[in-house]
């Protein structure tokens, strides 16, 4: 981050050492060169391969928005978030239209995001939707436009809403710049935490236009593989290949409960043979029905 020094001496990284394709470093980093900025806890956190490697506790961060993802992304988590636990979404969409093709069939909540039951107000906590909106943007730091590209995921409360003076949610900020004919990549943008909010919420404003040299550098950055990787929304499948959606979200228990009442009664009535010595026969049929019910219960738990 802007106030995190790599070297204790404060030395600046020379150009010949920047972004060198070094296999040893990539191996130690978990073969992941992707870098991101997290706003968890109202603190700017630099993340590499899912691990925090630095932080900045300043309220604001000057940056250049190099590119933004297409559409509005959506993610649905069947499990609640737990600190330190790797919880992946059960269903997600890169453009907010349909689930991504790599989402497992048993985890898809709907064939269409617009008609999805997790997109209904109140499907989440309170009046919120269970499926979360967000937008990924690729950014560089103001003083390092030609350097590292970071992914910044902008959550719904930082994306939508009305502007308050020069403090604007990202969507309103984009409309503001568009109205003045200014490209978002052509300015230094200040992202600032809104201290009136209980959860981390960002507000954006333009600080200054880029110089011509900076503008050319930013445009060149926008075509790099690092930017494409920063905007991509993909999640690796779970190693055990088990469905990400818990049984509580399936409809199977409802069907099983209806069948439990009717099925044994019909079986007993259909077995009237050898009455004198077959009093135990209904018990056998009942036992078979219990086996069926037991099997249903097992299915529900899977």
Structure description:
The chain has 302 residues and is of the alpha+beta class. The protein has 2 domains: 15-231, no CATH class; 251-301. The chain contains 7 helices and 10 strands. Strands 1, 2, 3, 4, 5, 6, 7, 8, 9 and 10 form a 10-stranded mixed β-sheet that branches. Strand 2 and strand 3 (51-56) form a beta hairpin. Residues 1-10, 25-33 and 238-302 have low confidence and may be disordered.
**Rg result:** 27 Å
Number of strands: 10
Q: What is the domain total for the residues?
A: 2
The description of the largest β-sheet is: 10 strands, mixed
Please state the average pLDDT score.
74
SS element count, helices:
7
Query: What percentage of the residues does DSSP assign to strands (E)?
Result: 15-25%
SS-based class: alpha+beta
Estimated helix fraction: 25-40%
Cα separation of the termini: 45 Å
Low-confidence stretches: 1-10, 25-33, 238-302
Strand and helix layout:
Elements: H1 23-28, E1 35-38, E2 44-48, E3 51-56, E4 60-68, E5 73-76, E6 91-93, E7 131-141, E8 150-155, H2 156-159, H3 170-179, E9 187-193, E10 202-209, H4 212-221, H5 225-231, H6 252-269, H7 280-301
Parallel strand pairs: 1-8
Antiparallel strand pairs: 1-2, 2-3, 4-7, 4-9, 5-6, 5-7, 7-8, 9-10
Give the structure's gist in a few sentences:
The chain has 302 residues and is of the alpha+beta class. Helices cover 25% and strands 21% of the residues. The longest helix has 22 residues, at 280-301.
């Amino acid at each position: 981050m802007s106030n995190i020094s790599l070297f204790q001496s404060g030395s600046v990284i020379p150009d010949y050492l920047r972004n060198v394709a070094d296999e040893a470093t990539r191996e130690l980093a978990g073969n992941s060169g992707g870098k991101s900025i997290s706003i968890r806890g109202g603190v700017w956190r630099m993340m590499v391969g899912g691990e925090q490697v630095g932080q900045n506790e300043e309220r604001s961060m000057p940056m250049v928005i190099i590119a933004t993802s297409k559409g509005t992304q959506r993610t649905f988590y069947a499990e609640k978030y737990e600190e330190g636990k790797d919880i992946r979404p059960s269903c997600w969409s890169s453009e907010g239209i349909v689930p991504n093709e790599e989402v497992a069939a048993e985890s898809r909540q709907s064939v269409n995001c617009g008609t999805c039951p997790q997109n209904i107000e109140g499907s989440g906590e309170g009046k919120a939707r269970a499926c979360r909106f967000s937008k990924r943007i690729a950014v560089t730091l103001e003083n390092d436009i030609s350097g590292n590209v970071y992914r910044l995921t902008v959550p719904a409360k930082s994306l939508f809403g009305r502007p308050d003076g020069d403090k604007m949610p990202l969507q309103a900020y984009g409309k503001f710049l568009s109205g003045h004919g200014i490209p978002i990549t052509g300015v230094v943008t200040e992202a600032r935490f809104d201290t009136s909010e209980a959860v981390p919420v960002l507000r954006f404003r333009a600080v200054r236009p880029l110089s011509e040299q900076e503008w050319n550098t930013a445009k060149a950055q926008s075509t790099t593989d690092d930017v494409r990787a920063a905007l991509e929304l993909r999640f690796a499948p779970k190693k055990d290949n088990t469905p990400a959606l818990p049984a509580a979200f399936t409809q199977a228990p409802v069907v099983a409960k209806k069948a439990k009442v009717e099925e044994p009664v019909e079986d007993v009535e259909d077995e009237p043979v050898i009455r004198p010595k077959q009093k135990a026969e209904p018990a056998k049929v009942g036992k078979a029905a219990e086996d069926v019910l037991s099997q249903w219960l097992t299915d529900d738990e899977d």
